[in-house]
Amino acid sequence: MKLLLSGLVTGLLFGFLLQKGRVLRYDKQLAALRLQDMTIVKFMLSTVVVGMVGLFLLYDQELVKLSIKPTILGANIVGGLIFGIGWGLVGYCPGTSLGALGEGRWDALWAIAGMVAGAGLFAEVYPLLTRTLLTWGDYGKITLPQVLGVNHWLLVVIFGLGALALFRWFEKKGL
Predict the structure, then answer these.
(1) Is 82 within 8 Å of 118 (Cβ atoms)?
(2) How far apart (Å, rounded) are the C-alpha atoms in residues 16 and 28?
């Protein structure tokens, strides 16, 4: 129960920050896709860095176990293209579409309908995908620290410093 409550609290906090950061707005989404406003990129990078720190702190204390998914290039590339095309067409990603609907933006229903239809289509073609796309470039369960042979904290620091440098560059460019 305590775990569920902490999930609810962090989810509410995340939703609050999404709304306060104005990243649920359609115009912000399109400006990010057109590389004119990096608010969403800054928000995503911030959440990734905070998530990395939190996850690895919990992992090092053996409070969580990582469930690493296989790296399959075919699936990652095709899935990324489908995700990007959908985001570009409707102007919302999955999380922001639900947040936008919560704010009363009814146009987000198109994105949600697309996600539901896409999930249904994926379920129908999954048997075919296991024999084709899900075998292309299968590298198994690997992580970047394993591939590079370094401690995960080194990558967390490098990624965090890189994010800060990128934030500074965005600010200089007025993005």
Answers:
(1) yes
(2) 16
Contact 93/18 with Cβ under 8 angstroms? Answer: no
Ramachandran quadrant class, 174 (left: phi over 0; alpha: psi -120 to 50; beta: rest)? left
Domain spans of the chain, in order of start: 19-68+148-175, 70-142
Tally of CA atoms within 13 A in the half-sphere of 8 that contains its CB:
5
The pTM (predicted TM-score) of the whole model is 0.80
**What DSSP line would sit under 41-97, residue for residue?**
HHHHHHHHHHHHHHHHHHHHTTS----PPP-BHHHHHHHHHHHHHHHHHHS--HHHH
Three-state DSSP at 138 gives strand
Angstrom distance (rounded) from CA 87 to CA 30: 9
- pLDDT single digits (tens) 13-43: 888 888 888 888 888 888 888 999 998 899 8
Residue 56 to residue 16: CA distance in whole angstroms: 25
pLDDT tens-place string over residues 115-158: 999 999 999 999 999 999 999 999 999 999 999 999 999 999 99
Distance CA 50, CA 169 (A): 20
